[in-house]
UniProtKB/TrEMBL annotation:
The keyword Cytoplasm does not apply. One of its GO terms (molecular function) is glucuronosyltransferase activity. Coiled coil: none annotated. This is glucuronosyltransferase. Its EC number is 2.4.1.17. Belongs to the UDP-glycosyltransferase family. PANTHER family: EG:EG0003.4 PROTEIN-RELATED (PTHR48043), UDP-GLUCURONOSYLTRANSFERASE (PTHR48043:SF23).
Amino acid sequence: DPRLTAFITHGGLGSTTELAHLGKPAILVPIFADQTRNAHMLAKHGGGIVLNKADLEHPQVLRESLRRIFDDASFSQNAKRLSEMLINQPISARQLLIRHSEFAAKFGRLPNLDPYGRHLSMIEYYLIDIVLVAASAVLVIGFVVVMIVRRCFAVKTKIPKNRASYECDSHPSAALVATGFPSSSLWQFYEHRNP
């Protein structure tokens, strides 16, 4: 429609393709998925302005963008130039389809045109083996770091082997007495009464 001066869109593939072929400038507000890429593609050619969706809360940002589109003729010129480039491609989409179809009919299925990634197993395709090795390495390194930190901050108290019983300073009637366990680190706290 020749009455259209500018277009505000979310940047979907359909609207950006139509805008590129019509040669009309646009304000693009991408929401998700491929819309950001589509919007920046039009902006790269100078035929549009990309806004963040959070900018829509501020009417002055939208007003300023519309004013730039209306006042700056370069947006309209760049959009028309992109349209002319698409219309005058060296090989049209129709010709490209016909040439590829004729090539396929003449030579049939060619193994060198079959992408190798199609034949990968699920483990190779999703890099599960690499992820497992990396996760194992992270876990081992984390375990080693935790063990080193625990060793550095561990408080060791050694009890000399020549004495089997020690009285506590705060409780003179209590004593540590060695028990009959084989490990020297196992001690029990007994109440010791002097007669």
